[in-house]
Structures are given as C-alpha cells and as structure tokens.
C-alpha cells in the first residue's frame, strides 16, 4: 500500500461576473509543499546513492530480461489499484510489494530502482498528473533504496539463523511503511490533520496488506523455481487473482457510484428546496452551492478537473465553476465569449459526448488544448424548456484507459439529477416571484410590499407609507375595454418607478399603488406625494386618443407627531387608505393621516358591522311618508323609508348608513326587511277596508339579482296581497349600471303586476333616451325641481315638461318635495297625478302614521265602491 499524491491542486474560487476571474492558489502553501517535495527528492537520491555504493552490483547477462519484466510488473501493480481519498491526499492500495520482493530476490539494486522509476514516473506522465514529480520520484527512490538496504543488513545479521528470504520480506514491509509515513507528512504540510490513533490504525492496515502481498509474491517465486511447470501455475493463479480483483473493483465502483448518486441527489434536492435569500421573490444566482457537487463528481470519476457551466442568472448569463486543477488562462479568457462557438458545447439532445485528442477533428483538439486537457466528457443540463448549462469532465487520473462506459452512465444520471434540481430551483423562484409581485405591472403586490416594509421597520428605520390612487380608471375600462385600463395602470406604474428612483413601489389593487419612503419626514412625503399625483395625472395617449386622469394620495408615518412609533405595516397601510379617502372628500389631492380621520372611518366600520344586529334587535324601523292624489287630495299610498336609532350615535340619517350597507352587500337584507314591513302594513290596511300601496326603494344589487323577482312573488303570495299595491322605486343610475342584467329583472317584476317607478327623474344622463325602453309605470320628479318652481322659471319648465312627457308615454307622474300650497296648486294646474312632501306630512313612524291618518283624513267611497281617505284640508 502506497500513499502517492494524485491531486494536490488548491481549491478553486468561483467567478460570478463576466469575464470570469481566474481562481487563485494559496502561495504560502504552494511554497511549503514545493520545499517539502524537494526535501523528499533529495532524501531519495541520497538514499539511492548510499545504497548503490554499499551493495555490490552483480551483473548476469542471462538475467537481463528480468529488468523489463520487473518494470512491467511495477507498472501493472500501479494500474491494478484501489484509490481512496483522505482529506486532500489520494491513498492508493496497490500490489507493488509483489514485484518488489521479486526484485529483492533476483536483481541488483540499480535494476530494481530503474524499473520502479520507469514504471512509476511513466504512469504519472500517462495519467497527466506529473505536477508533483519531485515528491513522487523521491518516494519511489526511498521505496527501493531502504528495502534493499534493510534486506541486506538483516541477511548479514541473521545469515546463520534465518532463511535467505527473511531479509527481503522485512525490507518489503519497510517499503509500505515508508510510503505511509511520507503520505501522512504530506497531509500535514498541506494543512490536513489526522489523529495519532487514526495514523496508527492506518500503519497497522498498511503492514497487513503489505504482508499479504509479500507472502503472495514469495510463494509465487518459490513455486515457480521449485515446481515443474510452476510458472504456469503461478500465471493461472495470477490470472484468477486479477479476475477476482476486477470483479471486486467493479463491485466497489458500482457501490461508490450509488453512494455518489445518493449524495449528489440529496445535495441538489436541498438546493432545489432552499428559498432564495434576497427580497420577496428575487432569485439570486448562488454558484457556490454547487461546489461540493462538482467536487463529488470529480472524485467519483477520478478526474483531474470538473467544470460546471450553469445558467443561474435570469438574464441567461453563464456562471463557471471549476473543481480540481485550475483551467489555463486561455480557457478563462475565452469562456464568456466563445460558449456558443465552442465545439465541445454544441450539445444536441441530452446524451454524454466523449472527446479525445487523438481521435477528434481539429476544432475539437483546439478546444481541448485550450482547456489543457487530453480527454473530456461533456453532457448538457437540459431542463423542461431550455438548456440550463453543461458539465465538463477532463482527463481521468487513475488509469491509462481513460473514461469508460460506467463513467458515461454515471455522468448521464448525475446530469439528469442536476438538471432536475436546477429546474426545481427556477420553478420555486418563479413561484416566489409570482407570490410577491403583481403579474400586470411587475411591481410588488400587497403581500410583497408588506414583507419588504416589515423587514425595514424591524430594523428600526423611520418610514412613511404613501398610497397613490389613479382615478377615472373605471370610466376608461367601461368605455374602451379593460385592456386599455390595464395599459393606463402599467403606464402609471412606470412613471412612478422612474420618479421614485428605486424606492419600493407596489400595486395593491386596480389603480391603487403603495410607496415606502425610508427616512422621510411628513413634509418630504407630502412633497413626493404631490409630485407623484402630478406625474400620473399627465394625459395618457392610448392609440389615437388621449385620456385624462387624476391622482389622489394619502400617507401615514411610522413616527407620528405624538412621539409613539407605529411599526405595523398593516396599520400604516390602513391609515394611508384613510388619508386617501379623506383626500377624495376634500379639495386637496394629498392628505396626511390624522387621528381624527380614524374616528370617522371607525364609525363607518362600526355601522357596517352592527347593521345586521340592528335589524334583528329592532333598532332599524320603517317610516311612512303619505302620497296624495291630485286634485282630489285622496291618500293613495305611502313611501317606506328606513330609519336607524343607534344606541350610541342616536338617530342616523339614511344618507350616512345606506351607502355603506349597499357597498358591503347587506342591501339585500335591508330591502327584504323593508318589503316585509310594507307588505304586513298593506295587509293590515286591506283587512281594515283600505286599499293603499306602499313604495319600496331598490338598489343596484337588487336589480342584478336574478332570484329577486322569485322572492317578491313568494312574499306577495304569502301575505295574499295584489301585486299592484307594491311599488318599487329605482333610479336611472341603478338601471344603467348593468342594463343587461337589470332589464330582465325589471321585465319579470312588471309582468307579475308590481308597479315600477323611476325615482329622481330629470337628473339622469339619459332620461329621454331610455325611458321608453324601461318597463315602468310612473316617474317621480326630483324634489330639487319642485322646490325651485316658485323662484326659477327654468325648474317650472322642467317640471311641466316631465309631466307632459310622462302622460304622453301613459305614465303616472309623482312630484316629491311639495312643501307649500303654491307648488301644489301649480302641480294641479299642470296635471300632475300624485304629490308627496312636507306640505302633506313628514315621514312618520308606523304608530304616528296611523294617528295621522285618523286625524287628517276622512273616510269616503271611491268610484270603485272602495273605501278611500281624503285630506280634511
């Protein structure tokens, strides 16, 4: 067993930029080992000279053929080896003791030394591992000189008591100990460490293997000399041993291949599962993660060098990693520019390609010489959709025969695992990027912004969260399509990114953006917000048209004026949103958060969350405002109006809570509640002999609900009420919000006999155009026109026109907002059908409305022999 140094090159550093940077070698360690190698060589030469001078040289011409045979024996022993790597020294378990003891028994020292040097140095050169010739030559000289000297000394001392072969046996064993000792010394010089106990165990094992090999050589020698045809028997035994060794070697190789494959698979699996270490969703190329994998491949294939070329950068640039001996300068200089033109890297398919200098065309030979290699295996790392890189394996060290089929199979399998790991890493990076970024603009999304801002705030930095909203986006989307609206969002994001110069920017939703301003005062944040609003308010050229836009912004600081720092990102975003809403309701486009704003929106939040409970506990009531037919002044019905008596805030105006209820989707419950109260009241009047209708207001959500007419029909049937006594009032804006869905609902309600009225008529943008298309029965003149009739001739003209238009379309006309006798008389003169307003009565609770009916009306019989109520005055 000998300890020859097979690969003592320094560990390479990695290059991350282009052009690649050549790895550096530790100069101090190189100088130390060079000095140690020279000392070993000097010791070997000196020992050889002394041994040659001491031992007599006996030349026999009939044994001249033994020199070449002995050289072949040493060479064969060098090739039939088992290689084990310990730290950075390659331990070689070989059969050199067999030819050595034969040399001690048959040839002079000089012949044995020449045969050993010729075989050993020739093998080193053949392996292209002649970088440490001085060290290896010195050890080879000592491996021959010391055993010959020891054998001669032992035989002289024990010439009368020991057999002649005893001295050569002892000398052969010293050769193994010399190799082991110098290998441990080389390990120490190179900075490795081995405990004394481990070194002792290694020496014992070395002696055991040496004794076995020595015994085999001695027995073979004796059999060949003393037994007829003994040389044939020895040859047969040698062939059997070589065959057994080959089988054992192949078995060991398969086991090591499986271990390597397992190690590499586990390593690349960890790399594939590891999250990138930069920002939300940013994948960072980490070439150093693959260094152990490259080194493991090099060790298993027993190669001088492994080169990994990996596309880890999203831009597609190639990073190069070298394990083993460094690449020549020419290869580093050509690496970044000649990848596509390099004949070794033209990799169709996914198979391993083998190149040898003696068999390759000129361009391949040139590429190999540029790498300083004689042989190379190259395999692509091909992912599901693209080429991810390549693996190059240069020059097998341990055998002359080069890389074999087992090496090719192993490299192909390893490349498949590497490609899978890289694909997984890229997929995870993409998933992480998508999780933290907006797909439309490429900016951070809400989640990414929250994580990034939370990281900065945890560092103790003062920050201002700025929210900027792009207005008129809905109008653009409705008029031009959502594609054009998306283009405006992308353009707005690009404008703000350019203005911010690297400050974190996120798209929260629709046309809403968020900015994190680090180490900014509120005054500076206000200035930035003002500038951003002006930037996104500039006109947007969309194809052949130019769209105007507006911006509104709000901000909140993590260090408010009261001195209490707020480091919660969600709270800052919420405060910035409150400031934006305050800006929308004011004349300023930029507002900073103030605690008073929070109280307003807290109240709105409480109203929304408490509304359902208010319906269940009777806080919400229905009031009725009577409607009177003109000119008879008979009470024909009432409008149901909702009122909320809040236990904390008192009586609430419907304009405060109804829009909130509509926005949160609770309007269906409110409409059902009012309709149920109205039907109960109608049923009571019918039982009392009165036939009066009740009007209920509908919202946009009711008109978009295809199941709403079914619920109305069920309620009318349950209370046994004629459908014409129930009136639904709707606004033009609610119908036109989604006419394709609302018109079918209105037609179904109209078909079942429910009265439909257009509320606030005259204020819509398309009253005349759509009035004939709507299945309605009456129109209600907006009270703003009725109130202005006494002072504005224009309002009077509008009211007169609406009355005439309604009658021409066979629609009943209701005027709301009648507050004086003059307005009532004018409406009677115009032929208006029904009046409603404070002149008649304010909205009253159910009990007060019943009292009002009893006190202000008288019973009579109508034209249809029905009981009617008429105002007393």
Automatic annotation (TrEMBL):
Residues 461-595 form the GGDEF domain. Residues 13-24 have a biased composition (Basic and acidic residues). One of its GO terms (molecular function) is cyclic-guanylate-specific phosphodiesterase activity. Keywords: Membrane, Transmembrane, Transmembrane helix. It comes from the Bacteria. It holds the Pfam family GGDEF. Residues 604-857 form the EAL domain. CDD domains: EAL (cd01948), GGDEF (cd01949). The keyword Transmembrane applies. The chain crosses the membrane at residues 33-56, 100-121, 133-153, 165-190, 229-248. Residues 1-24 are annotated as: Disordered. PANTHER family: CYCLIC DI-GMP PHOSPHODIESTERASE PDEF, SIGNALING PROTEIN YKOW. This is Diguanylate cyclase (GGDEF)-like protein. It comes from Saccharopolyspora hordei.
